[in-house]
Amino acid sequence: MNIIITGASKGFGKSLARKFASNGHNVYICSRSAAQLYKTLEELVTEFSEVTIKAMPCDISDKESVKEFADWIAAQKIDVDVLINNAGYFIPGSVYNEPEGVLEEMLAVNLLGAYNLTRKLLPAMMARKSGHIFNMCSIASLQAYANGGAYSISKFAMLGFSKNLREEMKPHNIKVTAVMPGAAYTDSWSGSDVDPKRIMESEDVANMIFAASQLSPTAVVEDIILRPQLGDL
Ligand SMILES: NC(=O)c1ccc[n+]([C@@H]2O[C@H](COP(=O)([O-])OP(=O)(O)OC[C@H]3O[C@@H](n4cnc5c(N)ncnc54)[C@H](OP(=O)(O)O)[C@@H]3O)[C@@H](O)[C@H]2O)c1
């Protein structure tokens, strides 16, 4: 299979790239920082030499950059079997006092990037009547919490996008899965004082997504909800 993963230079995206590549699948990844992306690419290519792994820098929040990434994928002449809309980040804050523009920024990266890339890649998947799209939502898509602010709003919207797409894609034989992880230790937590053992491992999320991609054509996992064993922080 050919797997497209956004935001794969670190964190969940990198764990997903490793999981799919180690199971014999070809992986195409992006992130903003070219330096970190190519470092990760080199690691992956060295470890998994038997599959195709390629990377192209892309800022998913920039429509022109998304177009260039989609054109690059088209130029690979591959069928997209799995698209994982993973790129995103968290700016803590509250609606009443977060800086002007934070909601626009959160929506651009956590929602519009996935929306725009999906719209670029869907026509070919629909013509083939096959494929699987995973949308990285969050526990913050299900439940509001203190300091969630614009991030939580963007993740509720991402779940709304995913639910709509699921309904629309039923007759086109394209699976859609919303992924709602609680806290998992990735680079986004590395600056914090959270004990890595208190929250999930990045690989837990990658393992569940991979498992959901392996079902028969007649079944889809609509929602994946994962939490730390001790519950949310
Ligand atoms: N870790 C958690 O506890 C947790 C829980 C629930 C949901 N999530 C969600 O899971 C996803 C991944 O989070 P993570 O914890 O793995 O984060 P991470 O370790 O910080 O990795 C984020 C990845 O996304 C890339 N990225 C960020 N903004 C981007 C953009 N505009 N365009 C393209 N790539 C971009 C980053 O590279 P560059 O910075 O170089 O672009 C990096 O490769 C996010 O959507 C996040 O909201 C995480």
UniProtKB/TrEMBL annotation:
It is an enzyme of class 1 (oxidoreductase). Its EC number is 1.-.-.-. Pfam families: adh_short (PF00106). The keyword Oxidoreductase applies. SUPFAM superfamilies: NAD(P)-binding Rossmann-fold domains. InterPro entries: NAD(P)-bd_dom_sf (IPR036291), Sc_DH/Rdtase_CS (IPR020904), SDR_fam (IPR002347). GO terms for molecular function: oxidoreductase activity. Keywords: Oxidoreductase. The keyword Oxidoreductase applies. Belongs to the short-chain dehydrogenases/reductases (SDR) family. This is SDR family oxidoreductase.
